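User: quick one - fold this with 2-oxoglutaric acid bound?
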Amino acid sequence: MNQIAMKQIADYLEHGYLVLEGFVEEAQCLAVRGRAEAIVEEFDFGGDISVFSTTEQSHAQDEYFLTSAYAVRCFLENGVDIGKLGEGEVPAVNKIGHALHDLDPVFERFSYTPELIGLLEELGYEKPAFIQSMYIFKSPGLGGEVVPHCDHSFLWTEPQSVCALWFAVDDATCENGCLWVQPGGHRQPPKTRFRLEGAGTVTDVLDESPYDRDAFVPVEVPRGTLVVMHGQMPHYSEHNYSPLPRHAYTLHAIDTACEYLSDNWLQRGDTLRLIA
Ligand SMILES: O=C(O)CCC(=O)C(=O)O
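Assistant: Sure. Structure tokens for the protein plus 2-oxoglutaric acid:
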């Protein structure tokens, strides 16, 4: 059965993103939501922890981040100080990454579905693989902004093949920090490239011009919506100042028929699982 119509494929190629309401059922969303909360509850925050921030890059030097390529790890909201937490207090988590889909059975069931695999085939993927997954909490009042970027900058293939499969686990609105995209912006080359250098990472600036925020539109969607984004699609999300949560789960697919660069930050080696 087709997941998308020819017209939707044409729209995706034209605009660089596609909004598929009702792609997953509420029960599926609630299953990953519950599991993500349990992972945080059970997580050992006593050890080495790196605060994940998209406004600073210092954390990226941290082993904790680089070795999360094949792990299920929590990353804290910027500014959260583990040392100041009370006994038994759970810190504010920004996200869980980056191999939930391969290491956690609940996320694995959500990710490797015939519908999603069919969709990738219809988008022209020859040998698709999910290179990473993230569960993003965007908690009420705490969820930090994600600055404008495109995913090709982080998961570079030649030619470009990455796409984001972004699932609204909660309703996403302008109030609680929905995605913003720049329609047609996927035709511009990436402005940066984040890659390995030595034991750490660097960001190469390829184009110094700022993103034109006026060119972005909000993607307000109900729970169960799948937003597919081309790897060169500029996107961002704002801080969640509202009292409502905005959980999302995102998978990044690549075509392994393309060359995955050996200095991309995320290296899966032999653990990368081909979908079909
Ligand atoms: O969910 C968000 O707020 C942003 C996610 C994002 O930018 C990404 O997955 O690349």
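One thing worth noting: The helical segments are 6-15, 26-42, 63-66, 100-103, 105-111, 114-122.
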